[in-house]
Amino acid sequence: MNTATFNTYRFWAYLQLLRPANIITAWADIVAGFAASGYFVQLNLTPLLWLLLATTGLYGGGIVFNDVFDAELDAKERPERPIPSGRASRTGASLLGGSLLVGGVAAAAQVSWLSAVLALAIATSALLYDAFGKHHPIFGPINMGFCRGGNLLLGVSVVPVAISDYWFLGLIPIVYIAAITALSRGEVQGGKSSTGIIALLLITAVMVGLLGLGWLTDYQVLTALPFLTLLAIRVLIPFINAASQPTPEHIRIAVRAGVLSLIILDTTLAAGFAGLPYGLLVLSLLPLSMILSQIFAVT
Fold it and tell me: What are 124-165's pLDDT values in tens digits?
């Protein structure tokens, strides 16, 4: 293997650590939060670009450290992953993850002090989850959900005062991700029906919560309804299957559907706050994420 081929081989391995399809879903969080803030009516998109760069670093860094902390476990259960397979080093992955997290916080600081604080909280929560939270059956899902809820609020933080009005929006991805994280524990060896039922109930609560946003004067629930229906179709069926037959295959299918459908969840929020065209813009990220999910692992 010549030097150029070897470098390409190593680059691909580190790119796999980032799980690009998942990063696209993080972009959708930011764009949805941006819609809720009301800033989307401005012609200046520079803050949005900074926040997209910030979430790329925060999510990418957090997911790289997930593999760093799981290196020994993956050596037994998922030896094909970049670190246990030897295609990426644990030290190199740590340096990449750390650089991404620092870069994410720095990018957020270009928008507002509150954005920087939220970014720092997300980075800390991601590391906490990677190192400890994922091993706790209750705290783990909540911990991971907090990362995604914070990411949505990071988009809202482009208008700092809007956080006080819409802080509760962060609860929606917290519950949604908690459901996916709880279910994902059975991806390798299978899970329990009770866990699947809890996850299904949490997903249903998210659907009800999205409908409940119609009580807000600036949220058009009828505009959001088609996207909410699409979300229900894509997520409820695989979650019902995973709850009734909690095999590794059914669980992986449900988790994959849940992760990719984060974009539809964000589309529902964006359409309600900013209108149909804006919602369709967010939804356009879904095909890109799905294509990348065929190339790179999602979980």
Answer: 999 999 999 888 878 888 898 899 999 999 999 999 999 999
Q: Which residues contact 34 (CB under 8 A, 6 or more apart)?
A: 40, 48, 51, 155, 156, 158
pLDDT digits (tens, 9 = 90+) for 160-219: 999 999 999 999 999 998 888 888 876 666 667 788 888 899 999 999 999 999 999 999
Which residue has tokens 């580190």?
14
Both tokens of 55, joined, read 């979430």
Who's near 161: CB < 8 A, 6+ residues apart?
A: none
Q: Classify residue 102: in a domain, yes or no.
A: yes
59 is written with which tokens?
A: 């999510």
Amino acid code (one letter) for 41: V
| CATH number assigned to the domain comprising residue 278 | 1.10.357.140
C-beta of residue 249 within 8 angstroms of C-beta of residue 225: no
Provide the CA 161 distance to its chain's centre, in angstroms.
Answer: 24
Q: How many structural domains compose the chain?
A: 1
Q: What type of residue sits at position 139?
A: F
